[in-house]
Design a protein that fits this description.
Elements (H helix, E strand, L loop, with lengths): L2 E9 L8 E4 L2 E4 L5 E13 L3 H8 L3 H17 L6 H4 L1 H17 L4 E12 L1 H84 L9 H14 L16 H11 L5 H15 L1
Parallel strand pairs: 1-2
Antiparallel strand pairs: 1-4, 3-4, 4-5
Helix pairs in contact: 2-4, 7-8
Protein name: Band 7 domain-containing protein
Organism: Effrenium voratum
Length: 278
Amino acid sequence: MSVLADAGIEFSEEKPEDGVQHLSVLRSRDMDGKRIYLDVSVHYRLSKDKVASIYRDMLTFYEDIYISELRDSLSKACNLFAIANAWENYTQVVDIMQSACETSLSVYHGTCWGLQLWGIRLESKYESALIRTQVRKQAQRTEQNRKLHTVVRAQTEVMLAEYRKNKTIIEAQGEADRYLIEQEAMATAEKNWIDAQANALEVVRNTVQLKNVEMNDEQLIRYQKIVMLSNKSATNFIMKGTSDLDVGKAREIKQMAQGSLSGSDALQIGWEGMESSS
């Protein structure tokens, strides 16, 4: 569709820009009967393919007819909403007036492509009452939001307290578990050490034999003492026994304890030493 012209009509006490038809403010009543004064700007468009129909029906006075139709349709559209909605639901109010504009101009081959509602005034008594109502509603909403904030904060504090309690319980349980694990590990290690010593003694009892005779308990204890002394870097012996234990025998026992005498000689000397002391 080719456009012939875009034009505007303004219902307002203020002077519009050049090229816009200036008319008095739009007067009407809302659905509650309150007298209202609206500043409204309407933008319409003419298309070339409608020129013949416009001239046939309205000659060159089409804009005067548009103004008359718009004033009537917009005034009636104001009866469909309460003026308070202009503050509470502005988009809905503008949509109602835009729809009325499109309907009224389409009958006369025009297209309403824009409408702005930019000024609203009431009679002083209604305007003061409306302002008080809006202020009161705003105060109510503020108080409701404050109460909601208090409730949410209280719920948050309860949740935080629960989290702190759970954290303390978890940490205490973790500390108890750690202690039990450590004690169990120490007990297990000690048991394993005792078992290892018992197994080592059993191996010694079964291995260190002379003429297929095992050591008795007292000999086994003395054997352990000698092994223990062999791990010392400097070991001194005080030999106590019968006169049959000569100096050479004592030297050999010391050499065995210090690891310088090994094999069958050490086994023979050790056995004789333990027999002689028993």
